[in-house]
Amino acid sequence: MSTMPIPPVDGRISWLRAAPLRAAPLRAAPRAALLLPLLAALACGGGTKTANDPVSADKTEIAWKDKTRAQRMDWMGLQVFPRMKSAFKEFDESRFSGFACQTCHSDKMEMVDFRMPNDTIYALPLENTVQSAREYDEKVTDFMVNVVTPKMAELLDMPVYNPETKSGFGCFNCHPSEG
Ligand code: HEC
Ligand code: HEC
Questions:
Q1: Is position 154 within any domain?
Q2: Which of 28, 70, 120, 160 could pair covalently with 106 via S-S, beta carbons 3.0-4.6 A apart?
């Protein structure tokens, strides 16, 4: 019988746990009716920028998906962070007074190499996502649907999640799924 030692895997557990969650947005198929606000956001052009949208103001020519690691880091720090910070603070100054990269990425962001979703924030159900979230906290959910998701999608050059095509940027790009 071989006595080859099995190397410890503890240090890799967070990676292993983080990886399968990336598939969540594709599996997520919440009922279309519940995502009407998201669809309404899509209706004005599926990612087309409007002329007076401040988010687009400093846009570089390089789309998020084509950015190098260093360019992504800069974009997060210089564009995403200040804009999202003011949005969160405008929504609830006292709750988000300490808004940081970690608010979205968690305290172990460096350990997981900034991979999203963040498995330490509130887990959402795959079915009836927005409705369930609203039952949990209506005010925050409306902010997530109307501000956070479309703003972030725009900053990442992605369309907002479309339940019909099951593609685009949505809740499960940041939140883990329940169960
Ligand atoms: C409002 C939420 C939010 C904040 C705040 C935020 N990020 Fe991000 N970040 C994201 C999301 C969502 C993604 C994943 C984008 C995607 O799906 O490609 C991401 C991706 C990244 C990536 C690329 C990871 C990869 O796999 O390519 C880096 C690096 C990063 N963030 C760094 C930072 C840093 C540094 C800060 C603070 C200065 C920050 N982020 C603040 C939401 C946020
Ligand atoms: C860009 C990343 C991002 C996206 C996209 C996003 N959220 Fe969030 N969400 C957050 C962050 C960050 C918090 C605050 C976590 C905290 O309390 O520290 C949050 C908080 C919440 C909360 C409150 C949880 C609590 O612990 O009180 C709910 C509910 C919620 N989100 C629902 C949603 C829904 C539904 C969607 C999709 C329509 C969505 N979120 C999209 C990042 C995101």
A1: yes
A2: 120
The total number of structural domains that make up the chain:
1
Q: Is 143 in the pocket of ligand 1 (CB under 6 A)?
A: no
In a domain, 9, yes or no: no
From the CB of 151, is ligand 1 less than 6 Å away? no
Q: Which ligand is nearest to the CA of 87?
A: 1
117-176 pLDDT, tens digit per residue, is: 999 999 999 999 999 999 999 999 999 999 999 999 999 999 999 999 999 999 999 999
Q: Which atom of ligand 1 is nearest to the CA of 114?
A: 24
Which residue type is seen at 2? S
Full domain range(s) for residue 66: 22-46+59-173
Q: Is residue 52 part of a domain?
A: no
Residue that the structure tokens 């210089």 belong to: 78
- Tell whether 10 is covered by a domain: no
Q: Name the closest-CA residue to atom 3, ligand 2.
A: 174
Q: Is 72 in the pocket of ligand 1 (CB under 6 A)?
A: yes
